[in-house]
Amino acid sequence: MKHLIWVVLAVCLTGCASTQPKRYAWVTGLKPEKAAYYKQLHANPWPSVNKMLKECHIRNYSIYVKEIEGKLYLFSYLEYTGKNFDADMKKMAADPETQRWWKETDPCQLPLPDAALKGKIWSDAEEVYHLD
Questions:
Q1: Per the domain annotation, does 2 fall within a domain?
Q2: Average pLDDT over residues 40-61
Q3: Which of 46, 74, 83, 115 could make an S-S bridge to 111, C-beta 3.0–4.6 Å?
Q4: Cα-Cα-Cα-Cα dihedral of 41, 42, 43, 49, to 10°?
């Protein structure tokens, strides 16, 4: 009986423990002539897009804008709570409403050179510090 209690406890500790979300951050440029429209879109995001983000295990998602030497940049941060990031991103990319949203937002953004070389819009950012 003593061993059974330890097995149940071990299973609960490993299986019941919540996993920490994985943090992601990206940077891209924002076309000045599209900045107001981009902000307007994000001030009133489509409910279907927010729903898909949540279905794909995205939480604590923020996008910031910063002007540096006359150029606008977007900084995006999110926490992923799922188990398969690539599969969830493919699910999101296949969603017709998300595709429609991206047709509105993508023309506003100006990829940095490293992202443009890969055919992407957002450049990965490296986490150098974190404090819970």
A1: no
A2: 98
A3: 115
A4: 90
CATH number assigned to the domain comprising residue 72: 3.30.70.100
Report CA-CA distances (Å) from 45 to 42, 93, 102, 113, 125. 5, 17, 12, 28, 24
pTM score: 0.83
Q: Percent of the chain beyond pLDDT 90?
A: 85
What mean pLDDT is predicted for residues 82-91?
A: 98
The letter for the amino acid at 106 is D
H or E element in which residue 58 lies: strand 58-68
Range of the domain at 24: 18-124
DSSP string, 85-130: HHHHHHHHHH-HHHHHHHHHHGGGEE--HHHHHTT-SSEE------
Dihedral (C-alpha) 98, 99, 104, 108: value to the nearest 10 degrees?
100
Name the one residue in this structure whose structure tokens are 């819970």: 132
Angle between helices 47-55 and 96-105 (to 10 degrees): 120
